[in-house]
C-alpha cells in the first residue's frame, strides 16, 4: 500500500499533513488530511476522530477553518478528514453542487453511472481506517463527526456500526434526508427511485431502530439558512425520545451554517469525544 505525502505543516507542536493514495473502494486516487498531535512524537499511539465534511468540501475546509488543532493537540487525538467524494476527470459528475463530485453523501451507490465509483460508505467505514491504522501511530479507538452532509454521514456510519465507533457528533446534520430536497435528489440518483432502499442511510430512521447506543452530540444553529428546508433536527429528536437514545442536541442562538459556527463549538465536540475515546 503506497501513500504519497503532499504537504506537512507543524501546528500546535503536532503536524498537519495531506496524502494521496489509490482507493480500491472508490477506484480513483483520493486525498485525505490528518492532524497528528504532539504525543505521537513521544512514541505514543493516539485515538482517531474521523471528520466528514459537507457539500462542496475537500479534505481542506475543516483543517483550515475549524480551528481544531489546538484542542486536538492538548487532548492527544488525531483527526482524519477525507475528501467528500471520488474525484477525477474519469469520475461521473453533475453540474449542480449537491450531486456528484463534492457530494458523495457517504453512501454506496447502486445506480448507474454512480455505482462504479461512489462508495464513500465503504471507504470511510473500512478502507480509510485500515490504511490509517497500518501507516500512522494510532490505536483502533475511533470516533466520527461531521457537518451537514458529513453530519448525516457520521450519524449513519455510527448508528449502523456501533461496534466500530466510541462516539459520534455532528454540526447541522442532514438529519432526515429521505424528507428533504438534498437527500431526495442524491438518494434518487445514487440509490434509485425505490424509497424503501433509502432507510439504511437516514439517521432519524436508523435511530428509531437502534438497540446499541453510540453516545451522540449534535449542535444546530437556529439562524442556519438550511434549517427548515433541509436539516430537520426535530426528526432526530423525536426518534431519540422514542428509543431513549443518549443524544444531546443543542440549538445555538444566532449561529448559521458556516465554519464560524463549527469553530465556535469544535472544542466541546473534541472534549465530548475524548471522554469516550480514552475509556478502557
Ligand atoms: N450553495 C452553497 C452550499 C454549500 C455549503 O454551504 N457547503 C457547506 C457544507 S453543506 C460548506 O462547508 N461549505 C464550505 C465552506 O464553508 O468552507 C455553496 O455552494 O456554497
UniProtKB/TrEMBL annotation:
Broadest EC class assigned to this enzyme: hydrolase
Function, as annotated, reads: Serine hydrolase involved in the detoxification of formaldehyde.
The species is Marinobacter algicola DG893
Active site positions, chain numbering: 148 (charge relay system), 224 (charge relay system), 257 (charge relay system)
Q: What family does the database annotate?
A: Belongs to the esterase D family.
Q: Which GO terms describe its molecular function?
A: carboxylic ester hydrolase activity; S-formylglutathione hydrolase activity
Task: Classify the source by domain of life.
Answer: Bacteria
The chemistry this enzyme catalyses reads: S-formylglutathione + H2O = formate + glutathione + H(+)
Query: Which SUPFAM superfamilies does the UniProt entry name for this protein?
Result: alpha/beta-Hydrolases
One GO biological process term is:
formaldehyde catabolic process
**One term under GO cellular component:** cytosol
Source lineage: Bacteria, Pseudomonadati, Pseudomonadota, Gammaproteobacteria, Pseudomonadales
Q: What is its EC number?
A: 3.1.2.12
Q: What is this protein called?
A: S-formylglutathione hydrolase
UniProt keywords (A-Z) are: Hydrolase, Serine esterase
